[in-house]
Amino acid sequence: MASFVFKIEQFEQSLNQLEKEQLPFALMSTMNDLAFGMQRQIYREMEKYYDGGPTPWTKGGLGVYKATKKRLYSALFTRANREYIATTIFGGVVNPFPEMEYLVKPGAQKLNKYGNIPRGSLKRKSQNKSKYFVGKPKGSKRSQPHGLYQTYKRKAPKLIIDLSDKSRYQKGFFPAPKIATKYFKQQNHKMFMKNFRHAMKTARPLSQPTGF
User: Can you give the pLDDT at residue 107?
Assistant: First the structure.
C-alpha cells in the first residue's frame, strides 16, 4: 500500500548503552501504533469515497502484520478474500467471485443501503423458475443482455440482474496510500518519542557493567 523507513543511524549514535537496548522495543511499538492508526484512518476515509459507505465486510478487509523486537517490520495489507479493495485503490480487472461465471449488475433489482445487490438475491430468484429465468428473452435483439429476468403474463420480461459481463476494468478511486502517507508524516515522530520515553521508563538493563 505504501512503504516507510525509519532512518535512525544518527539518532542511535547519540544513545547510551541502556537506551540502545530499549530502541528495538520503542521501534516495534511505534511501527505497530502507526500501522493500526493508518488502518483506523483509512476506514474513516472510506466513508467519503465508497458510494453508500463501506460495508462491514469491506471495513474488515484491512489486516495488520505486526512488528516484533527481532523483526522490525510491520505492514497494512488487504486480506486475500477481499481483493476488490486493492482494485478500488490501484485499479485493475474485476472478475466474478469464484463460484460465479458472470459479474452482477443491477437492472430492476432493488439495492441495499450500500448500493449493492443484496447477498443471495441472484441464487434465490433464479431458483424460482415460475417467476424468473436466466438467459435472454425469446426473440430478443442481439443487444439484449444476458441476465436474470422476471416473467409476466401480459408484458415482456423485465431485466432484474444483468449478467452480460465476465470481467471489467475498474479505475482506482480510493487514495489509501496518500491517506497512509499523510498519517505517517503527521504521527511518526511524536509516536516514536512517546514510545521511546515509555521504553526508558520501564527499562531493565540487559547488559551488566563489568569491573571490581
Answer: 94
The overall average pLDDT reported for the chain is 91
Give the closest residue to 167 by CA, choosing from 112, 102, 98, 77: 102
Answer for the pair 46, 174: CB distance below 8 angstroms, yes or no. yes
Backbone angles phi, psi at 142, to 5 degrees: -60, -30
Residue matched to cell numbers 496510500: 177
Sign of CA dihedral 140, 143, 148, 151: negative
Q: Where are the alpha helices (DSSP H) in the chain?
A: 9-13, 17-49, 56-59, 83-90, 121-126, 176-201
For 30-41, what is each residue's pLDDT tens digit?
999 999 999 999
Count Cβ neighbours within 10 Å for each residue of 188-199 and write b for 16 or more, e otherwise. beebbeebbeeb
Q: Give tens-digit pLDDT for 42-73.
A: 999 999 999 888 999 999 999 999 999 999 99
Mean pLDDT in residue range 23-32? 97
| Helical pair 17-49 and 176-201, crossing angle rounded to 10 deg | 150
Residue whose cell numbers read 495489507: 77
d(C-alpha 107, C-alpha 192), whole Å: 52
pLDDT-derived band at 101, boundaries 50, 70, 90: confident
What is the chain's length? 212
Cα 156–Cα 160–Cα 166 angle in degrees, nearest 5: 115
